[in-house]
Amino acid sequence: MYGYMLRKDATERMCDVLLLLAENERKSYLDKILMTLQNQDMKSTMIGVEELDEVIDECGKEGEKTKGLLQVFDAFTVPKYTYSTEFKKFFRREAAKPGEGTFGSADHKVQVFLDRYWLLYQRTSRHKLFTPPASGVRATDAKKYRLKNVEFLLGCTSKLKEIIVLGMITKIHEGKLHLEDPTGIVEMNLREAKFQSGIFTESTFVLAEGSYEDEIFHITALGFPPLEPAKNTKSYYGNVNFFTTNPLPCTKSLMKLRAAESTEAGMIVFLSNIYLDQEKTLEAIDILLKGFDNCPPACFVMCGRFCSAHGSSHLPKLREGLVNLSQIITRFPNIEKESRFVLVPSMSDYGMNKMLPRPPLPSIITEEFCKKVPKAIFTTNPCRIQYFTQEIIVYRDDLMKKMCKNSLKCPTKDLPANLTKTILSQSFLSPLPIHINPLFWRHSQALQIYPMPDLLVLCDQSAPSFETKHVGCININPGSFSCGDFNFKVYCAATKSVEESKIEF
Question: Of the ranges 92-96, 242-246, 397-401, 463-467, which one carries the lowest mean pLDDT score?
Fold first, then answer.
């Protein structure tokens, strides 16, 4: 029935579970098991006892209290999926085994760009501009396009016009730009190219339109792959959880979570660039917590940098700043009891830095803080937060400065909208060359944005505080707390709205 088969051990376990239930409850429980199974990313229709135990456990969670349902996932636990052009679906890759190292091999580096390309390719090819009309259906007047690859260009000796290629901007030879995809590399001529909105840099994937002649691709228009709303993505891959390793909730549990979300979901406060070694910053945090003490938020997300000092004084001042922060928090018992504190490091904070994803602050300096504030979570950069049914990605980096500095043609207005559109269209948090933003090749999936989250938090000291929205995804930058006017953002999860706030002395 339903195409599933139980192994012997799973059959015995299922019988044991059903015998504990009343006879009139068994059919409804089996329906619940089947509904949960259909929402899982199963590798086979043959169900073993381990898979069955996971499903039984998920069904058991349905009646749990939903209030305060907030989970934080670090970057190194994000599952990795690879798109198969043969089967037209995503397959989960095995996680790194103990002892294999963090950096990965040269093959992992190649796989980073292949995964990015095929993700964007399958997303773009589904767009209405690239979808041919179905057989027997009357064609509309709207113009349709066909994606070509670089190999198609290189194999032609005559001039080609109105060609569109999806590829990555690269620089193979000094002074020349090339377009690269898994089939080859071709030189580009951008003298007459019209750039669409966005920030174009090396290592960004683009849709290049133009003509091919004399082994050169003459570009007339350059744009980014079209965006896709999360609901469209989930309609194709609804049984795949790209966000976390947790199994997807069954339909009934999801409906209960959504109902509870509209009435029980609280606020999440986002702060960035908090210099804990500065007296005025600590005073501002004290005022902030005092204002929220009567109505504690679900979570405070605090992003680095956490100390303004450099050199040998950085570590002792950071340690002292964390002690002072814990003392301030414990002065407000309501917040200490109800709210969580998530601390996300910057690339300049103490510890292993300059590589993405950035590990959390070392436990040697956070241990005392966690003892005083049990609900504190020191996590990675980037990190992921799941609150009821909403998916939130938090990333701390000075992207605006890096993207504009390395752009082919920097926009002159509305930089926040251009930045967020670029990041979302790439489905990648750091679409910069690896020599500018180095990353652990084995864990590149931590920077992936697919499908669109409900909220993307880009904590960027080089950009002003902003709020933009693209295809249902809200994008915010809380601004610099210590270097600005002590401004921060408050996200109301129940209404999916953002409030701009600041501390006034």
Answer: 92-96
The β-bridge relationship of strands 383-387 and 390-396 is antiparallel
Q: Which helix (H) or strand (E) holds 27?
A: helix 26-38
How many Å apart are CA 223 and CA 195, to the nearest integer?
Answer: 6
Burial of 204 (0-12, 13-18, 19+ CB in 10 A): buried
- The predicted-structure confidence for 9-63, as pLDDT tens digits, reads as follows 888 778 877 776 767 777 877 877 877 776 666 667 788 887 887 777 766 654 4
Please give the pLDDT value at position 251. Answer: 62
CA 260 to chain centre: 24
DSSP, collapsed to helix, strand or coil, labels residue 83 as strand
Token look-up 């409850």 returns: 25
Query: How are beta strands 81-84 and 70-74 bridged, if at all?
Result: unpaired
Residue 143: strand, helix, or coil: coil
Alpha carbons 260 and 62: distance in angstroms, whole number: 13
Q: Which two tokens stand for residue 182?
A: 């898994």
Q: Give 66's contacts (C-beta < 8 A, 6+ positions apart).
A: 256, 257, 260, 264, 388
User: Using an 8 Å Cβ cutoff, are 390 and 261 in contact?
Assistant: yes
Whole-angstrom distance, CA of residue 419 vs CA of residue 270: 19
Give, in order, the Cα–Cα distances in Å from 216 to each of 179, 186, 187, 211, 369.
10, 7, 5, 8, 59
Which is it for the CA torsion 311, 503, 73, 88, positive or negative? negative
Per-residue confidence (pLDDT) for residue 142, from 0 to 100: 62
- Contacts for 350 with CB less than 8 Å, ≥ 6 apart: 307, 314, 315, 318, 361, 362, 365
Neighbours of 146 (CB within 10 A): 11
Question: How many angstroms separate the CA atoms of 191 and 474, rounded?
Answer: 35
Residue 27, number of CB atoms within 10 A of its CB: 11
Judge if pTM exceeds 0.70.
Answer: yes
Q: What is the pLDDT of residues 384-441, one digit of tens each?
A: 999 999 999 999 999 999 999 999 999 989 999 999 999 999 999 999 999 999 999 9
Report cis status (omega within 30 of 0) of the bond before 305.
yes
The answer for residues whose C-beta is within 8 angstroms of residue 461's C-beta and 6 or more apart is 272, 273, 305, 398, 480, 483
**How much is the pLDDT for 63?**
44
